[in-house]
């Protein structure tokens, strides 16, 4: 039975003094080294970021090794300290591959439990001399009875050659795929999926940069042509490692998005206080206040969701796979992905809109944050996918035949608060069962004997009383009797099926034959 309240120490959701000091240092660092002008300047370089600044970030502050254990050359802190760094990097729109290297690849190595690989790669990640990424982690499964044609993309396969492995196939939209020194690849083998470490070369790997919306986060198509690779961990633990890595990535991205949202709100509030119109600051107008207040409320919710996901990721890294935090991380990561993505999108939209004409120009940095927000929305799956996964994780019934409960949601069928409400084309009769209180808008209420299949019938025609009752008035078509209480001419009209402003509408709601 799932516990009602998560077993997370409340203190882990609050920022410590050390984390506040780290935040202050990083904000000063990024203000100096990653201004909008710096970001634009480095977008045209081969690597897309300032490599000396990357080295300083690793050497002077030690960001790369914050969540790496001391035995592998790191600082031995937790994911919580790394989240502070990611939030500040997102606030400054830092364009180096911090997310794929430190959040994804480093945690994939740790979760794999392969001490040899960790000793080989993590010290170089911690000191900033090695950039890394992951590929094929979101690859579809091979052919199954439900999908006999298999995945749409060929994916990556691994072949055993002698005592080693070689990779063949391709992975698309790989973060920093064109420049990463190390790629951790989920590849298919005859025995099932397996995780591999590959250091690509020009002879065995072809890497093609992709043109993407967010130029500050580069992606590439990586084609493996017999690239030598080393197997990581065990075959049995591959899928768990991949899933945990993606959840850690979602938590890391959520922290970035909180930082970006915070910058967008602060910059917009500052502009609203300075910009005058009609003899007063535009921030003094109630309409502007309300919009900024909406962003602030959304941002606070995003901070909470991100803090919870961060706490779960930190607990997951320090615990065994069977610990409580392992079951909480997927839920927390999905929730944070939804809330923080939508908040970042709202904050950047207001960033542009409330700056007026200047917000739409290429010279203003607002569009860079809009691009980052839109790109991040689909980085580890869309919000719809996260909601679907979240519903499955917490035990909600989904699919095409949902039954109505309190708050149950449906894939294709009706969605409900306290009872399923009729959407577009949703029918009550193909699996969606309504108890008492199934409502279709403000139209017919299910009383005793009202069935909605090919038409809402109550005997030969609806009568006011035992059949479905109309909202303000339903008019008689052919065969329906206006008994006691059913009045015509107040606003609803009848053709084949009654169309009404307040009652049921034909084509969208339930339709009838010759009687309504």
Describe the structure.
This protein is α+β, with helices and mostly antiparallel strands and 516 residues long. The chain has 3 domains: 10-131, Orthogonal Bundle (Butyryl-Coa Dehydrogenase, subunit A, domain 1), CATH 1.10.540.10; 134-142 and 151-234, Butyryl-CoA Dehydrogenase, subunit A, domain 2, CATH 2.40.110.10; 239-393, Up-down Bundle (Butyryl-CoA Dehydrogenase, subunit A, domain 3). It has 11 helices and 15 strands. The protein has helices spanning 17-33, 36-43, 51-61, 79-91, 98-112, 115-126, 238-274, 286-318, 324-353, 366-377, 383-393, and strands at residues 132-135, 156-161, 164-175, 182-189, 192-198, 205-209, 219-232, 276-277, 280-281, 415-416, 420-421, 451-452, 456-457, 493-494, 498-499. Strands 1, 2, 3, 4, 5, 6 and 7 form a 7-stranded mixed beta sheet that branches. A two-stranded antiparallel sheet has the order 8-9. Strands 10-11 form a two-stranded antiparallel ribbon. Strand 2 (156-161) and strand 3 form a beta hairpin. Helix 7 (238-274) packs antiparallel against helix 8 (286-318) and helix 7 (238-274) runs antiparallel to helix 10 (366-377). The longest helix has 37 residues, at 238-274. The two termini are 46 Å apart.
Brief overview:
It contains 11 helices and 15 strands.
Q: How would you sum up the major sheet?
A: 7 strands, mixed
Q: What is the residue-mean pLDDT, rounded to a whole number?
A: 78
Low-confidence stretches: 141-152, 320-325, 399-516
Q: How many structural domains does the protein architecture include?
A: 3
Structural class based on helices, strands and sheet pairing? alpha+beta
Number of helices: 11
CATH hierarchy class name of the largest domain: Mainly Alpha
- From the 3D coordinates, which CATH architecture of the largest domain would you assign? Up-down Bundle
Separation, N- and C-terminal Cα atoms: 46 Å
Helix content: 25-40%
Number of strands: 15
H/E series: HHHHHHEEEEEEEHEEHHHHEEEEEE
Beta-strand level of the residues, as a percent range?
5-15%
Q: Give the radius of gyration.
A: 28 Å
